[in-house]
Amino acid sequence: MRRVVITGAGTVNPLAQDLAGTLAAMRSGACGIGPLDIPDVERLSVRIGGQVRGWQAADHLDRAVIATADRFAQFALVAAAQAMAQSGLEVGEGADCGVILGTAGGGLQTSDDSYRAVYAEGKTRVHPLTVPKLMQNAGASHLSMAHGIRGPVFTVSTACASSNHAMGLAFQMVRAGALRAVLTGGSEAMLCFGGIKAWEGLRVMSATACRPFSATRDGMVQGEGAAVFVFEDRDSALARGAPILAEVAGFAMTSDAADLVAPSVDGAARAMQGALADAGLAPGEVGYINAHGTGTAANDRTESAAILRVFGPAPPPVSSTKAMHGHLIGATGAVELLACLLALREGVIPPTIGHQEDDPECRIDVVPNLARAARVEVALSNAFAFGGLNAVLALRRA
Amino acid sequence: MDLQQKVIAILARQAVLDVSDVTPDSTLESLGIDSLGLVEAIFAIEEAFDISVPFNANDPARSGFDMTSVASIVAAVEGLVAQKAA
């Protein structure tokens, strides 16, 4: 089996619109969550979110591309271009390369705009490219066209675990020797009236802030954006002198088979154990866990219990960077993998900001409010989705 | 149908029970209504009475909407309906 490394990373998210800015923001514990600036916000009860502010697609993309790409695809395109530039990957004929992206909502803003046009504004027609803009695979297809990637190109949609599932499959395909390199990660742009209105219905959203693991937490806050990585065969990467950001060491996915929305200790614990076993790692080797940490009562208690089950009473430091960038739903695991890169490469564990009070039901070290210096050899990144789907990646310092 | 009967009808439908099986001292637990069912029941109550119920599933106790029994839910809905009229 081949070894798999990350040779490029790019991102557009509420903290910054590039890798360096995002890592700096995570290091300093910055918060990208603020008042939402979207049409009809006055009719929402949730009015905060992690928006990508000042997004100027024209600064990065051709007009012809912008006209055919929903916001989620634009984010993916820009993040992928950054990752490709850093990696220096030569695609060549492109048949031995792939694109595997995660998204939950796909072109939801395109859907929202078209519904508003025909239902609310009484218009008789919508934009002619509404279908190719809203389709879930649009982001992956745009990436293949932008970079001449002609192998397997597809989208994985598993709600909040989408990008971890996508990156896990990318890892498996490169490890198995099926592909030389894969552009992988996730993209999401759900911060529109319909997208937030739907989430309001579940009554799990905070109107104030995302405070994962804090006793005072009162729900999740949505974000938007993308992160895209180049996962590459290690031998090929070494041969061409590519930058190696980290090694992807293991991956596991499990299903709770229990409840459509309530998380399960067992499913989460089995996914973490599976990722460690896949990587040939012992729990004691893990130096950092990037939690799913949504800031809901249900997730944070369940995830804490699962971590304690896998790692015993003194687990490694855990943080949820969602307090900084919000929950990017289908892109969240991808942006959170950046936090793992920060820990592995720079020895900085990003904090869980917004922490006010320990919760006796979350007996884990959540690196409250301030980043911490630590030498981290192995990091885990958790994602647990509605539908009971769990996906965990294990990364090793390169 | 008075307010209490309406609330009971909504809870009974959610619990897949007959209205006669739902009494003022029934609890959500005794009716077998889980967290997802509760969110659906609250939605139905909001639609039926044109009110907004302040309920956050992360901390039901702090929501200011007492759901310890059918009677307390009825009282809370009465309060919200009265607030709307005021």
Account of the 3D structure:
By secondary structure, chain A is of the alpha/beta class. Chain A has helices spanning 19-28, 63-68, 71-87, 108-120, 130-134, 138-147, 162-175, 193-200, 234-239, 265-279, 297-311, 322-325, 332-346, and strands at 4-12, 34-35, 48-49, 97-102, 153-156, 181-188, 225-233, 246-255, 288-290, 318-319, 348-349, 372-373, 378-385, 389-396. The longest helix of chain A has 17 residues, at 71-87. Chain B has four helices and no strands. Chain B has helices at residues 3-15, 28-31, 35-49, 70-85. Chain B starts with a helix and ends with a helix. The A-B interface holds A 45, 201-204, 206, 217-219, 259-262, 295-298 and B 35-36, 39, 42-43, 52, 55-59, 62. Chain B: This is Acyl carrier protein.
**What can be said about the biggest beta sheet of chain B?**
none
Largest interchain contact? A-B, 17 and 12 residues
- Count of beta strands of chain B: 0
SS field, number of helical segments of chain A: 13
Kindly report how far apart the N and C termini of chain B lie. Answer: 22 Å
Main sheet of chain A, how many strands, which sense, barrel?
Answer: 10 strands, mixed
Tally the helices of chain B. Answer: 4
Domain unit count of chain B? 1
CATH top level assignment of chain B: Mainly Alpha
Structural class of chain A: alpha/beta
List the helices and strands of chain A in order: EHEEHHEHHHEHEHEHEHEHEHHEEEE
* Proportion of residues in helical segments of chain A: 25-40%
Features:
heterodimer; A: alpha/beta; Peroxisomal Thiolase, Chain A, domain 1; two-stranded antiparallel sheet; B: 86 residues; mainly alpha; Non-ribosomal Peptide Synthetase Peptidyl Carrier Protein, Chain A; 4 helices; globular
Secondary structure layout:
The complex is a heterodimer of chains A (398) and B (86).
Chain A: E1 4-12, H1 19-28, E2 34-35, E3 48-49, H2 63-68, H3 71-87, E4 97-102, H4 108-120, H5 130-134, H6 138-147, E5 153-156, H7 162-175, E6 181-188, H8 193-200, E7 225-233, H9 234-239, E8 246-255, H10 265-279, E9 288-290, H11 297-311, E10 318-319, H12 322-325, H13 332-346, E11 348-349, E12 372-373, E13 378-385, E14 389-396
Parallel strand pairs in A: 4-5, 4-6, 9-10, 9-13
Antiparallel strand pairs in A: 1-7, 1-8, 2-3, 6-7, 8-14, 11-12, 13-14
Chain B: H1 3-15, H2 28-31, H3 35-49, H4 70-85
Helix pairs in contact in B: 1-3, 1-4
